[in-house]
UniProtKB/TrEMBL annotation:
Pfam name, any one: HTH_5
UniProt organism field: Hymenobacter glacialis
PANTHER family, sorted: ARSENICAL RESISTANCE OPERON REPRESSOR ARSR-RELATED
Matches recorded under SMART domains: HTH_ARSR (SM00418)
Protein known as: Transcriptional regulator
Length: 107
């Protein structure tokens, strides 16, 4: 029996690998704060936790939770400079997926 995802992939012209990657990106970014983080980091190469917190008006403790989860999943990378941690996008495809969704007519 052919798995349903294989049939759907063929019908939509997508490979199984591409469908899995998109599903992974959607799972990891499935929160408004995480989407906003991606949008900020798409516009600027890297930002400190403090900068992101101020721009999004989100408490640093909550923001750190989102950032560390996204880093753990390979979406973001970080570097430490003194007391500050700077985050940047590691998986640039995340921006493409979010831009695709933003262009949907039903949103």
């Amino acid at each position: 029996m052919i798995p349903a995802t294989s049939i759907l992939a063929v019908d939509m012209g997508l490979s199984i690998e591409k469908m899995e990657k998109v599903a992974f990106i959607l799972k990891v970014t499935a929160h408004p704060t995480r989407i906003a983080i991606v949008q900020l980091l798409a516009a600027q190469e890297s930002l400190s936790v403090t900068d992101i917190s101020e721009k999004l008006n989100v408490e640093q403790s909550l923001l750190s939770h989102h950032l560390s989860g996204m880093k753990l999943k390979g979406i973001l990378s970080s570097t430490r400079e003194g007391k500050n941690i700077y985050y940047s996008l590691k998986m640039r495809e995340v921006v493409d997926v979010i831009q695709c969704l933003a262009g949907c007519t039903f949103l």
